[in-house]
Amino acid sequence: MDKPQLIEHLHEAVTYTVYDTKWVPLSAKFVVLGSKPNGHGIMDIYELNQDKLVKVKSVEKKVAFKCGTFGAASLRNRHMAIGDFEGRLQVLDMEQPDLPVYNVKAHSGIINTIDAIGGTQIDCGAPEIVTGSRDGAVKVWDIRQGQAPVVDMSPPPQMGDGINNSAGRRDCWAVAFGNTYNAEERIVAAGYDNGDLKIFDLRTLSVRWEATMKNGICGLEFDRRDIPMNKLAVTTLEGGLLVFDMRTQHPTKGFSYVEERNAGRSVGTNGVISGPKATVWVVRHLPQNRDLFLTGGGTGSIRLWQYEYPDRRVVDDSDGNKLGVAGALNMVSAATISTQPVHCFDWHPDKLGLAVCGAFDQSVRVLITTKLNTY
Amino acid sequence: MENEKKKSLLERYNIPLHYLDFAHVEKCTNAREMEKIVQVLRSGQEGHYPDLQRCAEEKLKALKPDSKLFRYEEQIKQSNILDKTELKPILDWTDAIKTKDSALNELKKVKQNLNLPSVRKLSKIDVDAESKTEAPKPAPKAPTQPNTKNKEARIKSTDYSKWDKYDPDEEILRMDLDEERDQEQVEKIIATRKKSVATDDLRSEKDSLYERLQAQLKNLSQLEREQFAERHRLRGNENFKAKEYENAIEEYNCSIIYDPENAVHAYNNRAVAHFKLKKYFSAISDCQACLQLDPMNVKAHLRMAEAHNAEGRHLESLSIYKKVLDFEPGNAIATKAVEKLTSMLGEVAPSSATRLKIEEIDPPQLKTSEAKKEVVKSATTVVKKTEPPIKDYDLAELVKPNRMVKSNLVSAAEALGNKLQANKGGAPKKPQSPPSTPKEAMLRLPQDNLNTSNKLLIQEI
């Protein structure tokens, strides 16, 4: 077999609902964020020790944790930014988690999603954190700035009688930074429950583009945050997986994309898809190769994809405008790892093929993927 | 009965029953139809025919190898199916990374004064309002503009005098013009957007970026520098794979700036990228830089030979290939290339003979520039006064064409310049500015070239 194989290296059952798992950069440790049955937040730090997992630290807080990231942390301090169920954003030092480095009431509802940038990129703008929340707002934070967001992308206040206004309120499910290739350029992509995808340009402070998917957007990721926008992967409810070519924006058609339906379902053993349409919860690009990425699906399956560029990425349409050409998606490998959705996944930034993922079956798995270097 | 509730696959796909037959499968050329047949067979709704199914699958594989029907999903395997040798790198890695981890923890106590960019000015993006004024959606925009105009110039239904003047053709023309103007605006916006990216004066921007990176370097520990360098190198590889060679070169540049001591791979990869852009000169100098760090690097040798070959310096190329064969006798690429080149060039042995002679004279010259100067001077005098050595070189001259000698000289000068540059710090900041220290040695070459004969030049190298 020449194709990559997905292999479960270690399995750890926990006593709480896992919401996010993230590797600590340049270490064999990873952080598990979750919610205990009593609603308390829990943060466990595990370390790989030869072929065992050792729990290094466990921290419990009043409010359940939803999501976290190391993206704005430098290699030296490695602080983690965490969003919780009550809309609080805190930045924690792994050594002294009791005393947050930064703490702000960021949103009125749960912080669903978080992304950060600028920690390890030198000369590419300030370290910033972006959060997306159930209150519909997307906010960008700079921890040197005090208690106000540096950029606020809230929906306008609702008009109406108070009965209907909750229905119109959007819920932001996914955010991602991108296009940060110099000190000025920066883009935030946000996905909402109604399928809206918005691309905010932080340099010009405007909405650069928006589109609507068929279903609510669960996961978003640029293939690289710190290069001129190349590709954006979007995953949705009911199994949609779309990869946009972000190099070329057509004045009317926007960005071209390639779509894969049913990416959240298991393909079964003989390629005949059966069972209900399942959400694609998460998409993560391999840090060592931007054209490989993994999706985690609602049926507990993970799939490894390869994006193939077309021969020509740009064509001229009849009006003489540039139109991007999307490539093709090629499923490299698939495996069922759980009976419950796999909703968080993180490749190790420094070790090719090593990953940690969490599923709703209250367990955390360390995975190894072989033969990735052949791509 | 089932069919009453739900159509069978056969009916849904509209495939006649007689298609499920070896003969039809054999001659079918429509991949889409084949996929349907395979799906029907796999579903077992029409009964199980293992042989036919296998045959159909094979046919489909031939017609459409990347069909979605060949996607399989497996239960996840446990790590015990992995070979010990496959698992070992990961276990070793956990040990290696732990030392790095603890080193970083030590570094944590050291204050890092990176001059971070200032905090962004507080601002808001109005989600809904912006989307209406923003350009890329001309469709909703078109109706809004005419609407506002219509309000001003709307003709009341009872205002007959105005209706008499109303010219539908003119109105249509106006609408067309409006549309055109919208389109123009869209284009303008796109143009400005492009400009903001393009007019950044890429060249100077890059130079200043490299300078700033250099300035940042002293704030970083070796560990961090390695880390950043590696990241940029991988970035470069990605760009290379996507055939964006310019971007790849940029990434490799950054990688080299961060960690010049361990930049073997970065130099090597940059050489290939340069080669792909047909910048053979840069490719050669990158190979040389790489060889300075790792003299036995086979890839660098091969690439340098290839670049020389592409430049038309077959002789150079051949000698490098031979060198590769010296320390790696079985190298397939080198053997092939040597065969090809020797058949192309014919007699080559004499040229290597002259090279040997040159090398004999070389060592005392290269020791110091002072000594070199003297040797050169004495050499010139010797040549002028005595006859025998001239004869010696004349022989070589007869065998070796003049052109070759010249190119030999150029590459040697390059090598020299490159060596000096690399000693200066390895950063390829200003390749065009000649190194300043060894003026005598560098400048003498062209002068001699003018004043004396070619034979002297051979001697000096």
TrEMBL record, chain A:
The keyword Repeat applies. Signal peptide: none annotated. It holds the Pfam family WD40. Keywords: Repeat, WD repeat. WD repeats lie at residues 129-151. The keyword Repeat applies. It comes from the Eukaryota. InterPro entries: WD40/YVTN_repeat-like_dom_sf (IPR015943), WD40_repeat_CS (IPR019775), WD40_repeat_dom_sf (IPR036322), WD40_rpt (IPR001680). PANTHER family: MRNA EXPORT FACTOR AND BUB3. This is Uncharacterized protein. It comes from Drosophila yakuba (Fruit fly). The gene is Dyak\GE19936.
UniProtKB/TrEMBL annotation, chain B:
SMART domains: TPR. It is found in: Cytoplasm. Keywords: Coiled coil, Cytoplasm, Repeat, TPR repeat. Residues 149-160 have a biased composition (Basic and acidic residues). TPR repeats lie at residues 229-262, 298-331. Residues 128-160, 419-450 are annotated as: Disordered. GO terms for biological process: protein targeting to mitochondrion. The keyword Cytoplasm applies. GO terms for molecular function: heat shock protein binding. One of its GO terms (cellular component) is cytosol. InterPro entries: CiliaryAsmbly_MitoImport, TPR-like_helical_dom_sf, TPR_2, TPR_rpt. Pfam families: TPR_2. It comes from the Eukaryota. Residues 203-230 form a coiled coil. SUPFAM superfamilies: TPR-like (SSF48452). This is Uncharacterized protein, isoform A. It comes from Drosophila yakuba (Fruit fly).
